[in-house]
Amino acid sequence: MFDERLAQANGRLKSAHVGVQLQAIGGRLYLRATFPPKPGSGKEQAHQQRLALGVHANGEGVKLAEAEARKVGVLLDAGRFSWEPYLKKTALAPVAAPVTVQEWIERFERHYFQRRARTPKSETTWRTEYRDILRRLPQDAALTA
């Protein structure tokens, strides 16, 4: 029954030349189309991608997804599509100022001793296996890959 509704919706979208398909994956509905690259993806050309709608793969979900597909199709045709309304807010959050190597080492040390008891043995391991190695890095520089 659901597969039939999904196929009918895709047929209507195709006959209307919308250029967007509906797909059901893992109990959720997605739009599939040639979208511009997502912000921060590093790609420059539009390519086939899926857009998560956050709706369940059921009859009501198909209705909502078909309406959204038509809307997205118009935006794509007009060259006015934006990823902003569809990305999680954390993905669009401004990037924080870079953290220095020294700050990362301090965070790592706190994390290290939260996960194990502070004993003479763990202190020695921290000092010889981590701190002595990490302090060779430029402490005031931003941590990078």
**What low-confidence regions span 5 or more consecutive residues with pLDDT below 50?**
none
- Largest sheet report: 3 strands, antiparallel
The total strand number stands at 3
Global Rg: 24 Å
Q: What proportion strand? A: 15-25%
Structural class of the helices, strands and pairings?
Answer: alpha+beta
Shape: elongated
Mean pLDDT equals 89
Task: Give a brief rundown of this model.
By secondary structure, the protein is α+β, with helices and mostly antiparallel strands. Helix content is 47%, strand content 16%.
Written account of the structure:
This protein is of the alpha+beta class and 145 residues long. The radius of gyration is 24 Å and the shape is elongated. The model has no long low-confidence stretch (mean pLDDT 89). It has a 3-stranded antiparallel β-sheet. It contains 5 helices and 3 strands; from the N terminus they run αβββαααα. Helix 4 packs antiparallel against helix 5 (120-134). It has helices at residues 2-15, 59-78, 89-92, 101-115, 120-134, and strands at residues 21-25, 28-35, 47-56. A hairpin with a 2-residue loop joins strand 1 and strand 2 (28-35).
Quickly list its features.
three-stranded antiparallel sheet; 5 helices; 145 residues
Topology:
Layout: H1 2-15, E1 21-25, E2 28-35, E3 47-56, H2 59-78, H3 89-92, H4 101-115, H5 120-134
Helix pairs in contact: 1-2, 4-5
